[in-house]
Design goal:
The complex is a heterodimer of chains A (444) and B (454). Chain A has 444 residues and is of the alpha/beta class. Chain A is built from 14 helices and 18 strands. The model of chain A has no long low-confidence stretch (mean pLDDT 94). The chains are: A alpha/beta (444), B alpha/beta (454).
Chain lengths: 444, 454
């Protein structure tokens, strides 16, 4: 029996899948519908200051026929009143006591204002509070959202105001629009946060319409940057989540988000330290029903691999993360092409020849078609020259045709940092070449 | 694939020597057929293309269209560029985009087929050229300078292609054609396979590149043309239906297939074929005739062929289509006489079997079975057993065993300075092969003429 339940900084939910604070959590109708479908938790769309939205709020990046690889929005926090939202939150919590219901807040930077809204939120019976330090548009110009998240001092100060007034767990949601995510993360810790949520959306302009020369989307001819999310941002989010997870100064539970579309994405975040995962774009694209596959898929994977709870796998891949200077310089792998699977498209050949290290040869095979001779070339890796860059593996359209095969004896290991201790400093090209020659590494 | 050594650069031949800004083909804006891909379908399909390095499709295409390049252009939204790539390689771009039997050419060797299914190359090709037509302009423009060196007689696929290619090589070409330009696609390919506006998007485009003289070539005119030009390209096709040579051939109700198809295309209202139609012959033209007869309202259409299905030289897709439309196909059946008094009443047939002996085409020879005669009732009999090339001014030309005009590998006939290509040298073939023929011939003609001009 697999147990998917989690406890994220004191907020418990039957599975790790939460709806992120966004349009899908705008109302009791939506959140109740999602809970009915099986979502473990929801972070209510941010409530706070009075706002008014504009039309054409979303833009997307489509890639060769595939819709919404990434989505960008300039929608603001909830445009419904605080009172209406709090009433609906209280009703929803009463109906769904076993689910995590978190209230996202954003108000002006005044201690009393924060104290007031925190108390009103707690009165709904909700399980936690999330502080929206992330929105990159609209609110940041008014001194809220990313304007707070980008300045660690503000971040710590406001978190402190909240935690001193709160009797329930407080999560701080960080903006990725910073050069080093660890600073606002440490500030949140300093302010007494119980957990960290990340990433919020990324500053982007989605494109320019080549017919009108206006931005996409266009709001009566004008536009600007918005917040970017969806499958395209996942690698950025994974990096930031892992940075927070391995930082010895932070050590807080993480509610991760950024491009989670399937259970596989969710597992990757959990393996890099997340406790819960939040989902928005995938729901906006496909609806609440995707939870079925998320829960089933994750459960099946765990059963197959022999894990019983998410605690067993949380952060399990973090140990792989290291800096470049600690990587083994003597690990050697080369590309090998399985000729029985190869379809002779020679995409590997052209990628290697033009974009890499010229080590794939083509053995000509002629085939006669309609009186014409087709030169069908069988690509073959010149293994002695292969530097193991892995580009051919990436471009090959056939699953399992090209593999990276380990060829070193697995006995020696030396990292750049270790090597620098051995070689005379300052380092010369000559000394480095001698080391390379000694280990049969040829640079061409 | 030729592997290029590091450090060396192999130049690709420029795609075309004619380019750029037109007065406008705006009058040729055509209606968009329903069966063309839409932009989204084209984008998704073009994304499937692996852009494989050897591009076997390009080699397999008789006109060697640079397929990965135009598919890449469709992918990026550069439809005009894609159409230009197609058109500069294949003069009858829209026609071939609609009816080229891609299953035996480009698509038959598509690398993607080894993964799942081949790219729908022809549909993408048609999408590009039709989108360009719909936009109503082409950037291609003439600036040829060599005047009066070459004449082309016959404006079918081979003649048009040759004239277009010669234009690209710098010639101002005189084209002689007694009917409007278009040849077989215009005269006898049924409009359900190729709509008039689809052909017109090609002919309107092409007619801007050379002068067309609407004259019927006779011996005197032919000599005159020879006198005024350094080279002539003949591409008059196969204009004459072969007689079948059985009793009753001249009865009312017997129609040679080209006449039938032409009438069905131009004036279908005056064509009365009755309820029962028999088609004699087992080629693609016979299938076209059978499908046309069905569309004209014939209740029963029977196609008789003296050999079996495996000897039939037809596109499988067309055979299936004819069957789907309810055409009955009787194999191993040979007509021996057309019966009737003044009007026909049926076709007397005899069963055959295939002997082990093979004829020059490599197919087993049918042998009639004695005493197996029977009559198929018919109101109309369409004879589709092949065509030949006949004209008094062609008398001096050497012929092949099959009666076609003989040419050497440079498309040169036995008459000096006269070249020929298309169906009149090879027999009934595909449009794309005729286009390829004309294109290749243009280069040898250009070489021949250049020597004379020097």
């Amino acid at each position: 029996m697999v147990d998917l339940s989690i406890n994220c900084g004191g907020i418990k939910s039957p599975n790790p899948f939460w709806l992120a604070s966004a349009p899908p959590t705008n109302s009791a109708y939506q959140v109740c519908k999602a809970f009915e479908k099986g979502w473990g938790g929801a972070v209510w769309k941010t409530i706070g200051e009075p706002v008014m939205n504009v039309v054409n709020r979303y833009g997307s990046v489509d890639y060769n026929g595939q819709k919404i690889l990434g989505i960008n929005n300039i929608e603001l926090i909830s445009d419904r009143t605080v009172a209406v939202n709090l009433k609906e939150i209280a009703e929803t919590k009463k109906l769904w006591p076993d689910r995590a219901l978190i209230v996202s807040l954003m108000v002006e930077s005044k201690r009393e204002t924060w104290h007031d809204i925190v108390k009103r939120a707690i009165d709904t019976g909700c399980d936690g509070i999330e502080l929206n330090y992330g929105c990159p548009h609209g609110m940041s110009e008014r001194g809220m959202g990313a304007a707070v998240g980008q300045v660690p001092e503000y971040c710590a100060m406001i978190t402190e105001w909240v935690t001193e007034a709160s009797t329930i767990p407080v999560l701080v949601k960080l903006t990725p629009n910073v050069s080093d995510i660890r600073y606002p993360g440490r500030a949140a810790k300093k302010g007494g946060a119980d957990g960290i949520s990340l990433i919020n959306t990324i500053n982007t302009i989605m494109g320019v319409d080549l017919d009108t020369l206006e931005l996409k989307p266009s709001i009566d001819g004008r536009g600007g940057h918005g917040g970017y999310a969806g499958p395209a941002v996942k690698p950025i989010a994974l990096n930031m989540v892992s940075q927070i997870a391995i930082d010895p100064e932070i050590q807080l539970p993480i509610s991760a988000m950024g491009g989670v579309t399937t259970w596989r994405d969710a597992l990757e975040f959990i393996l890099l330290g997340a406790t819960s995962v939040q989902v928005c774009t995938a729901v906006m694209h496909y609806g609440f029903r995707i939870i079925d596959d998320m829960v089933e898929g994750m459960g099946n994977w765990m059963e197959e691999k022999g894990y019983r709870s998410l605690d067993e796998i949380r952060g399990k891949s973090l140990k792989c993360i290291t800096d470049f200077g600690s990587l083994n310089l003597l690990y050697k792998a080369i590309a090998r092409i399985d000729e029985s699977k190869c379809i002779q498209c020679n995409l590997c050949t052209i990628a290697c020849d033009d974009g890499a290290h010229q080590c794939i040869d083509v053995l000509p095979k002629d085939k006669h078609v309609n009186g014409n001779v087709l030169h069908i070339g069988q690509p073959k890796v010149r293994e002695a020259d292969c530097v193991g860059c892995r580009l051919c593996y990436l471009v090959c359209p056939v699953d399992g045709c090209i593999s990276m095969v380990r060829v070193d004896d697995d006995k020696q290991s030396i990292s750049w940092n270790e090597l620098m201790k051995q070689l005379p400093q300052p380092l010369t090209w000559e000394a480095l070449r001698q080391f390379q020659q000694k280990h049969g590494i040829e640079i061409h | 694939m030729t592997r290029i050594k590091q450090g060396s650069i192999q130049k690709k031949e420029p795609r075309s020597v004619i380019r750029v800004y037109p007065q406008g083909l705006r009058e040729s804006v055509i209606s968009f057929p329903n069966n063309t891909m839409n932009q989204q379908q084209a984008t998704i399909e073009s994304e499937r293309c692996l852009q494989c390095y050897d591009s076997p499709c390009t080699v397999a295409c008789p006109t060697h269209i640079d397929i990965p390049t135009f598919i890449g252009m469709i992918r990026s939204g550069n439809v005009i560029g894609a159409a230009e790539v197609v058109k500069t390689s294949n003069a009858l771009a829209n026609t071939c985009g609609k009816i080229c039997p891609e299953e035996i050419f480009c698509q038959s060797v598509c690398t993607r087929a080894k993964q799942d299914s081949p790219i729908q190359i022809r549909e993408l090709h048609f999408y590009a050229t039709q989108m360009e037509s719909r936009k109503g302009f082409s950037r291609l423009k003439v600036f040829s300078t060599i005047d009066g060196a070459v004449a082309v007689i016959g404006a079918g696929p081979a003649g048009l292609s040759c004239a277009f290619e010669l234009t690209k090589l710098g010639h101002k070409v005189d084209v002689y054609e007694k009917d409007g330009i278009g040849g077989v696609p215009r005269n006898s390919i049924p409009s359900f396979r190729l709509a008039n506006d689809e052909l017109e998007s090609d002919t309107n485009f092409l007619s801007r590149f050379f002068k067309t003289r609407k004259e019927d070539v006779n011996a005197r005119l032919f000599e005159e043309i020879r006198h005024h030009h350094k080279a002539i390209f003949l591409a008059v096709g196969l204009g004459v239906d072969r007689p079948i040579g059985i009793p009753g051939e001249r009865l009312k109700g017997v129609l040679p297939v080209l006449q039938f198809l032409h009438k069905a295309k131009i004036q279908p209202s005056v064509l009365s074929i009755g309820d029962r139609v028999v088609i004699i012959g087992g080629g693609n033209v016979s299938l076209d005739a059978a499908a046309t007869a069905k569309r004209l309202g014939a209740e029963s259409v029977v196609l008789i062929y003296r050999r079996s299905e495996s000897e039939m030289r037809v596109w499988k897709s067309e055979l299936n289509e004819a069957r789907r439309q309810g055409v009955e196909i009787r194999f191993l059946t040979n007509p021996v006489a057309i019966v009737g008094k003044s009007e026909i009443s049926g076709v007397m047939c005899r069963h055959t079997r295939l002997s082990k002996e093979k004829d020059e085409s490599g197919r087993r020879v049918p042998v009639e079975l004695k005493g197996s005669d029977f009559v198929i009732d018919a109101d109309t009999v369409i004879v589709a057993i092949g065509q030949s090339v006949e004209a008094e001014w062609l008398e001096g030309f050497e012929r092949t065993e099959n009666g076609y005009v003989k040419v050497n590998k440079n498309f040169h006939t036995s008459v000096s300075g006269v070249f020929a290509g298309g169906d009149m040298v090879a027999g009934e073939g595909t449009i794309v092969q005729a286009v390829a023929n004309g294109k290749q011939a243009a280069h040898t003609i250009h070489e021949h003429v250049s020597k004379k001009l020097r």
